[in-house]
């Protein structure tokens, strides 16, 4: 019963108050949950309603006494430490508790952490998301899950308060993260593809913006092509949303997964080298739209 | 005035009754136009309402006595012959008549034909389309135009009876064809991208179809990713719609335009070599979805 | 008998007094031949010993009254004109005369010209060369031949006075040109390969020059790696020997042959796009070493 | 003084009796050295002259009481264990002793081990080699060194008894390994380049072998092009010398170094994906000539 489920889990642990974590935590509070929060930079907790959150000094403290712990961290190693470390989640987490792991991490790490939870008597649900901070704030995230069925049942009402759709990818803990890696690759590939096409149009004397508007409202009328299409066509590189060096990290992860899966991906090589070059040229802190689009323009002498 | 315009142009020449041309001609007849049709294989004219069409023996005959001639042919050379040949359009076409050229041709050819028309005292409007035969039948084509403004005004009601949207790309006759080439490239790149991503998912133990459904209903909810995504994910290669060897031709045209425009396009190289390999392997007559997707699968040993 | 052969052919037609043609013509004169020369810029004939050459006003005149005509021109179209044009070789050339065609042209053109000669009752021998002007002057060219056996016999003593080795590639007129295209590709690929490797070394803190010296004196102790290796390692881009835009033309020819032969060549795509980018950046008139090496350096931010 | 140096180091530790290690150890014995050998599979020591070697049970034992220890192992991790492990070299090695590390390892590992030696009061000299087992047996290895100058002086007579040339790449311990990685990349790139060129020739009706002979005796008259060229041209894939999966490992290492150095290398991507595909197709245990060449052939449908 969802009512009782909500009651049981009324208090949730939440670790990671970054650009994504803060709006997600706010949405959980709006949905009626109280949070035990932990963040390396404690002051970030100040952005949350004081009556609805308890600030903890360690991941272990955030996981203590709750049945659900959510993590939204930036890197595999930080998440591993938060779970397995001296002051990690597993030190205190309840038997049968569910760790909803929403960070973008590699499938490897997901599998490793899933095993550690099982050994400890608790559960791990992979639940990475697609969407930027504004989508997180608007409860418009797309959430991919993988793990055991019971964890999915338990997590469902919580995830519904964070996103606009939940898609399941089976029982293997790494599955949802594979989809996340594949999606990040497809976004990068779309950016490169548009930059190539719009530069071709530009060099033929056409207005890049009109070309992007055409595709974004017809064959390619999807958010990726509309939003990034506008930025790429207009060479609009400010403000910096997602940095080129993080886009490069995504490309590296996709490349590594292609190695592990023994699945050659020539377009991954293209976008990997595009962003590696951006970093090498000192553009690591530019928006990834600039990292891709400016690289294509420079190669074409414009 | 559209009424008078329609009256003036009530009879139209129409050349090219292939898979695209027939449904387009039918829509023109439904819209009240009478057609002077020419096709290499004359019998194709039998698919059109007999009362609404006159069958001609040459392009020159089809262009005789009308102010508008539409062409929908499969190759640059065939179109050149139909315009410039011994029995070509220019032999009979009216002063100030408008040739609406809807075939997929290179920008070069468009510019050459435009000049020939101007020299002859008539006009050329590039109007290539995006859409397969079923879209043509449903008046759902996307039409790109380029050429002089007066031709666009004259062509407008006619094009509106053929498609769901008209997008203009300026006065250079080749402009609309550049957009057509860029769009074909983006479709091919999307196919390769999906084949790589879904094969990665497959080799990680995921269900390709579920992954395609997820992307097609979220970040990539555009027709290209939904329709081709389903075929690629399901390795559904029958029936043959558009052949691999024609997809290869599109890739060659994109590559050539990248050379002419001095605009390097690394993803064009990838899809070009993918389809060149398909042709080399003897898959030229398979559907281009097979040409791309099976190639990616074989490289990954699945 | 070579002596009689030499006597018979003591007078030779020679068309094309460019950077390669002049030293080759001088070597023929040194070997005892008298030349009927034609060059678009007639003044170039002044570099040859006056007693040993007759200056002609047309290709037809140069081919008149001799059994052997040699061509060394820069482009397919120019050679076609020199053979097939109004004042071309075929207008005057002797029955059974042998046209030794030493220009770098496409296999297509070679086959077309071979047929034209056969139709006219004369013969065509493809004999493209590897080597720069200094190698031509030193009689150090490598010569590849293809065509009928009798032509090869007749041409042998003449070719021996121009190069250090003759290698035969069969009867198809295009064969030797395929080898020439393949060799140009391998040179370009070697240049890109070295630029990548030496930039990797540089970014690891090593001395590029020492690395190039090592490879050039051990595993890769061949002229290509020694000569170009030194220039690439030292980023020595002056003086301009062979221009980037001509290197780009070589890459285009290799790419086109890969299309015609249905033989995918991914490294051709890499070097093609490298030089296309060089041309797009305005480096078309730089040495091709700069076109390749500077492109690799810029991509690496150095 | 070299004489006294030889005397001092008359007894040397030697770890790693694989395909390369055995012939190298034999050459050291021939040069008058006595060896303390360690190998995981002890029986391999039986191939060495019994009077000249002492068999040890651990790396620590092999390093005990000598001033020089040589390692020739197959992987970074195995070497790290042999140096840093419970029974590793550092447990017993002499102050100021020189570890001559001849394995193919990453620059990272070299730097890490160098630091560990310095901390322990001993020295580390990187000395990776180019050459296959037959070259090792014939003392024809090419040896690259990097490290401190004194170590190089001490190692010189020993290395001279193993190879035909020593090339120095500075003081940074990782330098020589960067050159080794770069060289392995250049070999792989040369193989791919030849496979592409010879397949192009084949599809144009030429004899691959003749084409390879031409290049191997003219512009590309270096061992790499002669030896591999013959195998590639003849599609001679037996016996298996160096496995495709090891070639793939080399490509991965080159790719990783390109990432670490922020130096984009498009041809690395090509050869990486070529061998990744070979492994994915189940060809991991074939000779790497087959891994590369058969892949190119299949893509071309031959």
Automatic annotation (TrEMBL), chains A, B, C, D:
Signal peptide: none
GO biological process, one term: organic acid catabolic process
Segments forming domain 6-phosphogluconate dehydrogenase NADP-binding: 11-167
SUPFAM superfamilies per UniProt: 6-phosphogluconate dehydrogenase C-terminal domain-like, NAD(P)-binding Rossmann-fold domains
One function term, GO molecular function aspect: NADP binding
Residues annotated as domain 3-hydroxyisobutyrate dehydrogenase-like NAD-binding: 174-288
Pfam families for this protein: NAD_binding_11, NAD_binding_2
Keywords: NAD, Oxidoreductase
InterPro entries in alphabetical order: 3-OH-isobutyrate_DH-rel_CS, 6-PGluconate_DH-like_C_sf, 6PGD_dom2, 6PGDH_NADP-bd, HIBADH-like_NADP-bd, HIBADH-related, HIBADH-related_NP60_sf, NAD(P)-bd_dom_sf
Residues annotated as transmembrane: none
Origin superkingdom: Bacteria
Catalytic-site annotation from UniProt: 180
Protein name: 6-phosphogluconate dehydrogenase
Species for this entry: Mucilaginibacter xinganensis
Lineage: Bacteria, Pseudomonadati, Bacteroidota, Sphingobacteriia, Sphingobacteriales
């Amino acid at each position: 019963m969802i009512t009782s489920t909500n009651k049981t889990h009324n208090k949730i642990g939440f670790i990671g108050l970054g650009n994504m974590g803060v709006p997600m935590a706010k949405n959980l509070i709006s949905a009626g949950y109280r949070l035990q929060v932990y963040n390396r930079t404690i002051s970030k907790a100040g952005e949350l309603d004081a009556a609805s959150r308890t600030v903890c000094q360690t991941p272990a403290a955030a996981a203590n006494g709750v049945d659900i712990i959510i993590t939204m961290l930036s890197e595999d190693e930080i998440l591993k430490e938060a779970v397995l470390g001296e002051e990690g989640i597993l030190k205190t987490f309840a038997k049968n508790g569910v760790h909803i792991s929403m960070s973008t991490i590699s499938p490897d790490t997901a599998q490793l952490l899933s095993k550690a939870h099982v050994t400890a008597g608790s559960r791990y649900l992979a639940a990475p998301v697609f969407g930027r901070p504004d989508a997180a704030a608007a409860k418009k995230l797309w959430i991919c899950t993988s793990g055991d069925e019971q964890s999915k049942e338990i997590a469902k009402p919580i995830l519904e308060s964070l996103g606009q759709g939940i898609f399941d990818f089976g029982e293997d803990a790494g599955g949802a993260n594979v989809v996340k890696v594949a999606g990040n690759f497809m976004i990068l590939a779309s950016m490169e593809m548009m930059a190539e096409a719009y530069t071709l149009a530009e060099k033929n004397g056409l207005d890049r913006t009109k070309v992007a508007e055409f595709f974004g409202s017809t064959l390619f009328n999807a958010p990726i092509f509309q939003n990034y299409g506008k930025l790429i066509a207009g060479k609009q590189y400010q403000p910096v949303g997602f940095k080129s060096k993080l886009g490069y990290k995504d490309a590296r992860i996709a490349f590594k997964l292609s190695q592990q899966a023994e699945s050659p991906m020539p377009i991954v090589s293209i976008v990997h080298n595009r962003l590696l070059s951006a970093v090498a040229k000192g553009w690591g802190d530019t928006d990834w739209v600039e990292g891709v689009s400016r690289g294509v323009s420079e190669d074409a002498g414009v």
